[in-house]
Structure formats: C-alpha cells, structure tokens
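A common beginner's mistake is to predict each chain separately and then try to dock the pieces by hand. The better habit, illustrated here, is to supply every component at once so that their relative placement is modeled jointly.
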Amino acid sequence: MSALRGWKEIPIAGIPFEPAVKYKTGDWRVFRPVIDNEKCIKCGLCWMFCPDSSIIWDGDNFPTVDYEHCKGCGICAHECPTKAIEMVRG
Amino acid sequence: MAKSVQQRMMSLNGDEAVAWAARQSNVDVVAAFPITPQTIIMERIAEFIHDGLMDSEIIRVESEHSALSASWGASIAGARAFTATAANGLALMWEILYIVASSRAPVVMAVVNRALSAPINIHCDHSDSMGARDSGWIQIYSEDAQEAYDNTIQAFRIAEHENVQLPVMVMLDGFLISHTMQNVQILPEDVVSDFVGYRKPSRIKLPEFYGEKEIPLMLNPKYPISIGPLDLYDYYFEHKMQQIEAMKRAPEVIKEIHKEFAEISGRSYGDGLLDPYRAEDADALIMGIGSTMGTMKAVVDELREEGKKVGSVRIRTFRPFPADEIRELASGVSSLGVLDRSASFGAEGGPLFMEVRSALYSLKDRPPVLGYIYGLGGRDMPPRLLKKIAEEVLSTREEPERPRVGYPGARE
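With all components supplied together, the output reads:
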C-alpha cells in the first residue's frame, strides 16, 4: 500500500480518490455460490439481485461469480428460478 | 455611503426580512418544517412561491431531521439550499448538522433563537445555536430585522466561497427580532440577484481513476462520486483538518463580502466579525451577542453622558471566533464584561465568557473579565440591569480570584 496522504493532498468532503474495488472483501464469506451451467437458463435474475455487483454477466454467456467481492449472502441462490446456484461452504 | 442603491422601505418583522432575503437570493430548494418562532419564515416563502414571486422548489418535510437532510441532498446535488428552524427543531437536526458541514455542503439556515425544552418555552435565548457551536457551521448573529436580512443574503456568498465551502447559520433572536416589526430597507431584486449570483459548485480534481479530470463537486451521473462514504483512522483526521483550515480562512471572506455588501446597501456592522460601539477610548467594554447589544448601545450613550467611559462590542460571528480582533480591542481596556444568553451547565461560565477569557490569555496585560448569564427563556434584559452590569464592570480593576459569573434577572 502506498503512503497515506496528508490533508492538503486529498479532496475535500470525504470524497474517495480511489475506487473501493481494490479492497478484496470476498474473504468475509462463509458460503460461496456455485453456478451449475446445466441448470442455468441465463435469465439474469442473480445478476440483477446481487447487492454487491458480484455476478458478472455480459447478457449472452453464462454468468460467473466475482469471488474477490462476493460476500456469500445467498440472495442469488434464493432468487434463481431453476435452483442452478448452490451455496457451498468454503 | 454615496454610491449605495435606492431601496424600498418596508415594515417587516425579522422572520419576514429573512424570507425576503431568501426570495431574492436565487435559492433553488427550500426544505423546512415549521416551529415557533421560525414559522413566519416558512409561511412567507410558501406564499412567495405560490404567488410566483420566488422561483424555488419547496419540500414540505415531516420533521427537522428531514428538513436538513433534504437541504443537504439538494446542496450536494448542486442546488442552492435554504432552510430555517429554532430550538428543538435544531436539536432534532443534530446528526445532520455535522454531516452537512463535513460534506462541505454550503447550506444556509436561519436559526430563530429560542430556549430549549424542558420546560417548554418559546422565547429567546441562545442555548439552541450555542449548543451547535462545534458542529462545523459558520455562525452569524444578527442584532435586528435589517441585519437578519443583510446577513442572510451575505451568507450564501460566504458559504459558497471557494475558500470556505461551509454551511452558514444566520441567527436572529426569537420574538425580539423574529416577531418585532421594523422598518427594513429591501434592495431591488436584480441588485441582490447580481450580488449572490447563482450557485456554481466548486471544481475539484477528482477522482484519480477518472484521469485527473476537473469535475464539479456535486452528485453528477456523468462522473459518479460518493460524498463522505467511509473514513476510519486512516483519513478521518485529515478531513477534519480540512474543515479546521476552511474555518480559519472564513474570517477574511466574511469581512470581504461584508464590505462588498456595505458598498451596495450602505449598511455595515463593524468589520463584519465584531461590531464595536464607542469602544476606541473605553475603560470598560461590554461584549455580547444579539438584540440585547442594541439596548446596550443606548445604555452606553447614557453612561457616556454621565462621563463614564463604557463601550460595547457585539460579536457577530461566533464561529469562526474572532479571537485576534477581540485581543486587539481588549488590550488597553481596564475591564471587560461578557454577556451570555445561554448557560453551559457545569462550566465556569457561558460559552462566550469562556472563549473571550481564553482569547485574552495570550495578552501580557489581561483586563479582568466578569461574566453574566442573562435572559434565559426570554427573561427581559432591561436597560437598568445593563447599566448596573456596566457600572460593576467599570469599577472592577482586578481579576477576581475565581471566575465571577453573575445571573442578572434571576430571582433567588
């Protein structure tokens, strides 16, 4: 990590000057979602419901999970209409 | 002043004068909740908007917490936001006061000073805004309805100034100013409009992942930013340092805008920070805040006629606190009296008393300072009591062994 900056160097009003994506928050997770492409119908509900933008989907191919930021809340598994997402420990 | 513009004399009370100032200041959004003695401000603004005389959105919110939250939201979306409250309403805004200040949102708020409950009291003292003195807002106190009008107009310029970018509270004494009819000089619409202009959010180089681009400091879908999401022990202190530094830059800006406004209106109040009256050659100075200092001027005249060299100094800006200016005025004076219209329970005196004494500590020859807490809950402060205080201060030549604070007007 680079050296912390002084008050003269950072923007006012508490505005972040670098994106938060560099913080890997996936290790908060207990259960991870695993997508079964045999059952997935590419409906996009998991992508739409994910509160942390951790389902990566281009609209055509099968969705994948960004495990560096997914916190394992299980909303995607709950919403999946074909039960294609399983929550797996670890 | 020769060059000041032609103005319209109107009979207005303090609340109406503030509403007129808001009407003329190109305000985009007003979010307010009515509370005595502020209600008239909101009523007049609602009428102005309804009658097509004021081009602003009014948001009728369900509480003061929401009033300030909505004002904050409007402000960080780039709008010029105005709100007004009093006493318990200000208390309910508490959480958001700090958020507005630390988000550097230049909201302007009129605070009609009223005593805090309990027991419920609707009359004037300064306990509401004095409690908010550490929230990061600039605080400007008015002496009468005219000054409340003048201060409200100037407040937008001060708040939005690129060297400041802090919210401003404009105080006026509940009932004594808010409901007292006075002849008020109202500037022409276009003159005020030119003076305050339209809100232009300051520009910041931000954030780095946009490629060092200069963007306006506001919520803008084109350049999405978050304002104040999270700081821990890594950066919170640095953001507070920025607020501390902005407050230090504020006095110059307040003085400069006060001077510019004086040239247009012909009205000035000392240097904009302190308003001294017959203070140059005074032996004893009485310092205080708000409408009582108007009465004090008459008392000073009376004492001068009796050959007693008393002067007065009205503190206009309590935040930023004009410590340098107070030191300058107080050096060479034989004694000082400080009037507080609020109590700081358990402290050695009222807030103004403590800060004046603290400012004087770095003087070699410190005059003795006597403190007086008066007027709580609207208790009258008649000239005879002020005279008694001034005479007591004048006859004091040595600092008491322990800080001496009196409670004029309270019964035992």
